[in-house]
Design brief:
Nucleoside Triphosphate Pyrophosphohydrolase, 4-stranded mixed sheet, alpha+beta, 4-stranded antiparallel sheet, globular
Length: 147
């Protein structure tokens, strides 16, 4: 996160029935666990669809297809004591390798070499407040899709 810069990102929920795919996150300052669909920053000259294909290839060594645009969410937040601001393009999609469409948990690798856990979790756990999903506004977008 660069202070004072609005960051454009793209994320994909990879919905299967009543579940979505999310990465675990932790804010050490707040002592707060949260979940976020996988994706990343849109680079100059790159479309948000191209961003997702690149990020998924880099982080999971996987290919994706059938991207469907769901909407955009603006997210102003605090993480580890710093304020961030993102414009988030949200998609649904499918992995070419069916393993990723059905696996309940697996690991991904960040560009800095750190590993992270990816889980397929029921949407109702976020709707009930049992688990927290980010960015803010994403749950509303998923609920609109169901209607």
């Amino acid at each position: 996160m660069k202070e004072g810069v609005i960051r454009p990102i793209a994320i994909c929920i990879f919905r299967q029935q009543d579940t979505i795919l999310v990465a675990e996150g932790y804010d050490a300052v707040k002592g707060d666990h949260f979940y976020r669909p996988i994706g990343g920053g849109i680079e100059f000259g790159e479309t948000s669809e191209e961003t997702l294909a690149r990020e998924i290839r880099e982080e999971l060594n996987a290919a994706i297809t059938d991207l469907t645009y769901l909407g955009t969410v603006e997210n102003v937040f605090t993480f580890n004591g710093k304020t961030g601001h993102e414009i988030v393009r949200v998609y649904d999609g499918v992995f070419v390798d069916k393993f990723f469409n059905t696996a309940e948990t697996f690991e991904g690798i960040e560009d800095n070499g750190a590993s992270f856990v990816v889980r397929r979790l029921p949407i109702h756990k976020f709707q009930s407040g049992e688990l927290r999903i980010v960015p803010d506004g994403l749950l509303d977008l998923l609920t609109e899709e169901d209607e």
